[in-house]
Amino acid sequence: SSDTTPLLNGSSQDRMFETMAVEIEQLLGKLTGINDKMAEYTNSAGVPSLNAALMHTLQRHRDILQDYTHEFHKTKANFLAIRERENLLGSVRKDIESYKSGSGVNNRRTELFLKEHEHLRNSDRLIEETISIAMATKENMTSQRGMLKSIQSKMNTLANRFPAVNSLIQRINLRKRRDSLILGGVIGVCTILLLLYAFH
Question: Domain limits of the chain?
Answer without folding.
Answer: 8-103
